[in-house]
UniProtKB/TrEMBL annotation:
This is VOC family protein. Residues 4-122 form the VOC domain. The lineage of its organism: Bacteria, Pseudomonadati, Pseudomonadota, Betaproteobacteria, Neisseriales. SUPFAM superfamilies: Glyoxalase/Bleomycin resistance protein/Dihydroxybiphenyl dioxygenase (SSF54593). It comes from Chitinimonas arctica.
């Protein structure tokens, strides 16, 4: 059986601005108004991040995007052009460096609501297939 993650709901104090910003950084489509109360970011053919607006407090979520090396460089360039601070470690200081541990590249940044985005080219979350 194959199981796919179809969508996740991301709480936000500014759903349209947050969805637009993430979509522009990733270079993917988005919709200001999707089904129901969501602003949707279409991450790929099978995953949508649905931003929902709330005035209530919410936990900070962490999302990691695995991309191809050329996409990594393009997204990083857009992050830099937007003046967004980023770091090389999950809880470290803003150092504007790319982490090359695990044989790849990775960075972390936070969006205005506090959610933490991670981008990498090699997954460290599971062993490489043999």
């Amino acid at each position: 059986m194959t199981i796919y993650l179809d969508h996740a709901i991301v709480p936000s104090h500014t759903k349209v601005a947050s969805a637009r910003r993430l979509a522009e950084l990733l270079g993917v489509p988005w919709a200001e108004t999707a089904l129901g109360p969501f602003s949707a970011v279409y991450v790929n053919d099978g995953l949508t991040l649905d931003f929902i607006e709330t005035d209530e407090p919410f936990p900070i979520y962490h999302f990691c995007f695995r991309v191809e090396p050329n996409e990594f460089d393009a997204i990083l360039a857009r992050i830099q052009a937007a003046g967004i601070t980023y770091r090389s470690s999950v809880r470290g200081p803003v150092d504007h460096r790319v982490n090359t541990d695990f044989g790849g590249k990775m960075i972390y940044w936070n969006e205005p609501d506090g959610h933490q985005w991670e981008m990498l080219i090699e997954s460290y979350a599971r062993p490489a297939p043999r």
